[in-house]
Structure prediction request, 334 residues.
Amino acid sequence: MNAAWSGPVLVADVGGTHVRFALVDVAAADPLIGASARRFRAAEFASFGAAVQRYLDESGTHPAALVIAAAGVVDDGEVRLTNNVPWVISRDAIAAGFGFAEVALLNDFAAMALAVSLLQPRDLHAVGTPAPVPFDARRRQTFAILGAGTGLGVGALIVREGHAHALETEGGHASFAPGTAEEIDIYRRFSARFGRVSHERALCGSGLVNLYAALADIAGVEARFSAPEQITAAADSDALSRRAVEVLCEQLGSVAGDLALTFGAWDGVYVTGGLAPLLTRWIERGGFRRRFEDKGRLSPAVARVPTSIVQHADPGLLGAAAWAMMAAGTPGRG
Prediction:
């Protein structure tokens, strides 16, 4: 084993809104060192390197290895952030600039998928009657994961012959598929505004605002809110806000069911991301699971697939920790 992975490892989860850091003990059953976790607003930094420097300065540590989970396509050791912050993260530049002996760079939803190997029952909130299937490296398993936050992320975890393999995808940018007359009307407005319409146009923070605006236009009323937190806060008292949240949860369920079919994720689909905690009770009200199972001739098969909301505070960091543990030769549970 490379000695760089044996000591505390620094892990980072880089999204469009926040960048999170923590230290990892690769030999521990729960590898994240809780007191070491920090969260910064990405917009406060000119570069990812500047955020790394802030963390190192504040923590007074300098581990030999770093695992970065970033929201974007990883291409030849480099990633350009998909949403909000205009950062380009280079694995080699970070290693040279800070003297890390090892730097790993992976897509954020590859990390989210790897987190499945370390999630405990307390980290999950089941939606529907099928109980979550525990990760077990001794079995053939396939899981899918999607998360609505600043954008929409999609990943999968394939478990074969004692090894877990994360699929890096940009499935959030697959094409939006309306499933009702109302959603067709929404699609028409999205198409007129954006041209091509992806799932992410509806299923993320800004997507909730897009849905709300489209529904206001359909109803012929003025849109009162312009931020997702305003819409979720008003959903109990404002019919338009409530319908926007319901449509998002229904479409999220539809996409989650599509992922079960696409990946063959018969062992479970996990919902994560910054919106998930805000939408839990709305997801539970029926539209999500109904649309998840509404897959025509395949509905009976999909009805047996568990769906769960991930309640862990930092699943991206947990997934980066899982990667570090594999690099160190100490894989997670199962």
Observations:
- The CA atoms of residues 300 and 312 lie 30 Å apart.
- The two ends are 21 Å apart (CA to CA).
- The mean pLDDT is 94.
